[in-house]
Design brief:
Number of helices: 18
Largest sheet: 6 strands, parallel
Strand content: 5-15%
Structural class: alpha/beta
Distance between the termini: 58 Å
Number of strands: 14
Bound molecules: uridine-5'-diphosphate-xylopyranose
Helix content: 40-55%
Radius of gyration: 24 Å
Length: 452
């Protein structure tokens, strides 16, 4: 079979690389309108950083895996077309700030209708509001010229930083399709692709709407756990309890479970906020304001947590950070990725810049230009310095913040860092990565999230 994927991003690229890696009988072509992104996929330095991705891309590239900007040819030749274009939160018009912007998805559907010459299976890989498949179907069928299109929903559950491992060994693969003979046959074709490496009992099939809604619900539940533990972290700070101890204690209850209970400076990433806003918008649209308010609380708690961290820094540092040097270690939204979308670090840095602090930032994978874009800074803006390592960033600093839980930060020589800082030297661990007692014994005034 020939498989095509429109959108060579964080989801489309790794997912197709894994399909090519596992299914040597199929040809996989990933297309994108962005020429420089495709060039990067074809180069030695891939456009996204994911542990293990280089190896699987390099093993299949040019053999069964291709990256191209020739979207028309790829669509024409494909039996199965994945749509993995971005679906950001709408910034204009009706539903601005909450609804998903579906213009790229619609453009894809129109493109497929325009160039396809035979029957196709079209797979929604992007996370979409419930019933989007219906719109895609109408666009395709209004211009079908005798061709038959089957629309499947196959949401991706991979997390960045562990994309390759998640794709290789997914908890489940979810495929939604029409419960008609043609729909069921299309579902089976996609099941057969994944069954090359995923045990069939882990491949779930449902109707289209259940599949679309399951993705939004999964992300809402995951984010809700983080907001719940972050809410408790504020109470821990007020009472002297330790949020890590509380998380461990509740996580041993098998009904709760230990994962996704790590208190932090706030969740980021391209999905959680966008998908919950989308869920909230859907609930309002369907006349369910109480349900909308319930889920919106998860976002409100996350916003509170991000700004609460900044306020705590300022109040601890004698109520002013003006002209003080603050070293920020970590800018990505989590470790092992170069992605900064919705990273809590953006909000914390902006709050500190607003307070006229001098912020110096080090992240092992995020390029300087990206950090400047995220903070809305001109190339020559002096409020922020981007450094090549943690020692340079912390030199003469008044405080160090840990904003991403990169493993390399655990191995830093904090005595050396302390010795080159202004005293008293503050450390705020926004990821609860470090041993505060060890830092205090060096001399740091160290605090973490939900810890005294
Ligand atoms: C994905 C999913 O698709 C999204 O729904 C999910 O919620 C987050 O993850 P992601 O892969 O992270 O998106 O997005 P991004 O890295 O921005 O990649 C999308 C790609 O699609 C970009 O490279 C963009 O150039 C491409 N694109 C966009 C097209 O090729 N055509 C378009 O019309 C629009
Ligand atoms: C998430 C979902 O996990 C994935 O299934 C979906 O396909 C896309 O959205 P991702 O955003 O890539 O994946 O990463 P994830 O590991 O879920 O982390 C999201 C954010 O939550 C990060 O900022 C992370 O640091 C934070 N987080 C995660 C916590 O603060 N505490 C935790 O216990 C777990």
């Amino acid at each position: 079979m020939k498989i095509c994927c429109i959108g060579a991003g964080y989801v489309g690229g790794p997912t197709m690389a894994m399909i090519a890696h596992k299914c040597s009988g199929h040809t996989v072509t990933v297309v994108d309108i962005n020429q420089s992104r495709i060039d990067a996929w074809n180069s030695d330095v891939l456009p996204i950083y994911e542990p293990g991705l280089d190896e699987i891309v390099k093993a299949s590239r040019g053999k069964t895996l291709f990256f191209s900007t020739d979207i028309d040819t790829a669509i024409r030749e494909a039996d199965i077309i994945f749509m993995s274009v971005n679906t950001p939160t709408k910034t204009y018009g009706v539903g601005a700030g909450r609804a998903a912007d579906l213009r790229y998805i619609e453009k894809c559907a129109r493109k497929i209708a325009e160039v396809a010459e035979n029957d196709k299976i079209v797979v929604e890989k992007s996370t979409l509001p419930v019933r989007t498949a219906e719109s895609i179907k109408r666009i395709l069928e209004s211009n079908s010229k005798g061709r038959k299109f089957q629309i499947l929903s196959n949401p991706e559950f991979l997390a960045e930083g562990t994309a390759v491992a998640d794709l290789e060994n997914p908890d489940r693969v979810l495929i939604g399709g029409d419960q008609t003979p043609d729909g069921l046959a299309a579902i089976q074709k996609l099941v057969d692709v994944y069954a090359q490496w995923v045990p069939t009992e882990n491949i779930l099939t449902t109707n289209v709407w259940s599949s679309e809604l399951s993705k939004l619900t999964a992300n809402a539940f995951l984010a809700q756990r983080i907001s719940s533990i972050n809410a408790i972290s504020a109470l821990c700070e007020a009472t002297g309890a330790n949020v890590d101890e509380v998380a461990h204690a509740i996580g041993t209850d098998s009904r709760i479970g230990p994962k996704f209970l790590k208190s932090s400076v706030g969740f980021g990433g391209s999905c959680f906020q966008k998908d919950i806003l989308n869920l909230v918008y859907l609930c309002e649209h369907f006349g369910l304001p109480e349900v909308a308010a319930y889920w919106n609380g998860v976002i409100e708690m996350n916003d509170y947590q991000k700004h609460r961290f900044g306020r705590r820094i300022i109040s601890t540092m004698f109520n002013t950070v003006s002209d003080k040097k603050i070293a920020v270690l970590g800018f990505a939204f989590k470790k092992d990725t170069n992605d900064t979308r919705e990273s809590a670090a953006i909000y914390v840095c902006k709050d500190l810049i607003e307070e006229q602090a001098n912020v110096s930032i080090y992240d092992p994978k995020v390029p300087e230009a990206q950090i400047r874009r995220d903070l809305g800074l001109a190339e020559d803006a002096t409020a922020v310095t981007i450094c090549d390592d943690a020692y340079e960033a912390t030199k003469n600093a008044h405080a160090v913040l840990i904003l991403t839980e990169w493993d390399e930060f655990k191995a830093l020589d904090f005595k050396k860092i302390y010795d080159q800082m202004n005293l008293p030297a503050f450390l705020f661990d926004g990821r609860n990565l470090l041993d505060l007692d060890a830092l205090r014994s060096i001399g740091f005034e160290a605090t973490g999230i939900g810890r005294g």
